[in-house]
Write a structure and sequence with these properties.
This protein is α+β, with helices and mostly antiparallel strands. The chain is about 10% helix and about 30% strand. β2 and β3 form a beta hairpin. The N and C termini lie far apart (about 35 Å).
Length: about 170
């Protein structure tokens, strides 16, 4: 199993690959996305590593591909994942390994003034502050995605719903 971080964390080997890399769909340049090998993200104390089981390609992803919305070359695209928790940071509570979860397109810190005031999409006082996955940090068009501030950004999936039902 790859070492994911130096921070204490909980990991369920059954959800992790044996290699240190994963496949990810990355933005290369306008009009070009590429399937690349990238390192499996390191888990910090407040993060969760999700093994992605299903995700979408939405209109925003199309705008990114066309170059109409700028993102950095090499960024993993996507921001609507459903999956299973493969690793949890040491400070994350309320979730368990192997649990089915969804992460929202908006992934705020949950602790700044904007978040505490109920305007999480304005996280950090910025107009697009809450939209991070596939915008300012690697997104979910990959085998694994790191969900920052997991306690604020994950929701459990009821057993009677399929991943596809939850995603739509």
């Amino acid at each position: 199993m790859p070492a994911l971080t130096n921070e204490p964390h909980r990991v369920d080997d059954s959800f992790l690959p044996t290699s240190k890399t994963m496949k990810a769909l990355v933005f290369a340049k306008p009009g070009v996305v590429e399937l690349r090998e990238k390192p499996i993200p390191a888990v910090g104390p407040n993060d969760a590593l999700m093994r992605v089981t299903v995700t979408t390609i939405c209109g925003t992803d199309v705008h990114i591909l066309k170059g109409e919305y700028p993102v950095a070359a090499g960024l993993t695209v996507g921001h609507e994942p459903v999956g299973v928790i493969a690793a949890l940071g040491s400070a994350v509570s309320g979730f368990k390994l192997g649990q089915r979860v969804i992460a929202g397109a908006i992934t705020p810190c949950g602790q700044c003034h904007s978040c505490l005031d109920g305007t999480m999409s304005q996280c950090g006082g910025k107009a697009m502050g809450g939209w991070r996955l596939g915008n300012t940090i690697d997104g979910c068009q990959a085998e694994y995605v790191l969900v920052p501030n997991a306690a604020a950004n994950l929701a459990t999936i009821p057993d009677d719903l399929t991943d596809e039902q939850v995603l739509m």
